[in-house]
Write a structure and sequence with these properties.
Layout (H helix, E strand, L loop, with lengths): L5 E5 L4 H17 L2 E9 L15 H19 L2 H6 L3 E7 L2 H11 L4 E5 L5 H7 L2 H8 L4 E4 L9 H12 L1
Helix pairs in contact: 4-6
Length: 168
């Protein structure tokens, strides 16, 4: 029997992440577990800045970026998510998103990671790699990757029936 207590959905606020969140909600409802929604904000200080940007206060810019990320993560979670799925939002700052996701998963004792993938191919994939690919390779728990608009097994009508049964 599969037992899940904590599910992590990693989001970059893109379309594939929205699909991953739908899966995360469905799994959390079906298994009665806690949903963690995590965004990794880029650590600006880790990047080499061109001299033209030197006068910019990175601390203020970083704080603004993190506040914006918190607003977006909070906006993803409904009152039902918070009440029924005990959803927890998190924004982690790091220059290495995959490592940050894995570290959060370890701390929160996550049983399943769900994340979107953008499906890069060719040179973009070779040079940029994939956060999802790095997470899949190093995770200590199962990882489900989803692409937006691909063959989905969590259908909107199935989600609605779960919502209706939960409210009655």
């Amino acid at each position: 029997m599969i037992t899940l207590k904590h599910i992590l959905v990693a989001t970059d606020f893109g379309e594939a992440s929205d699909a991953a969140l739908s899966y995360g909600r469905a799994f959390a409802r079906n298994f009665g577990c806690t949903l963690h929604v995590v965004h990794v904000a880029d650590e600006l200080a880790s990047h080499v800045m061109p001299p033209a940007l030197a006068p910019i206060n990175l601390g203020d810019l970083q704080a603004d970026m993190e506040q914006d990320a918190w607003r977006q993560v909070d906006a993803l979670l409904s009152a039902e998510d918070l009440r029924d799925l005990h959803a927890q939002a998190a924004v982690v700052t790091s220059s290495t998103p995959a490592q940050a996701i894995l570290a959060y998963a370890e701390r929160a004792q996550v049983d399943l990671i769900i994340m979107g993938t953008h499906g890069r191919t060719g040179l973009a994939h070779f040079f940029l790699g994939s956060v999802a690919q790095q997470v899949v390779r190093a995770a200590k728990c199962p990882v489900l990757t989803v692409r937006a608009h691909e063959r989905e097994f969590v259908r909107p009508d199935a989600l609605q029936s779960v919502v209706r049964s939960a409210t009655t």
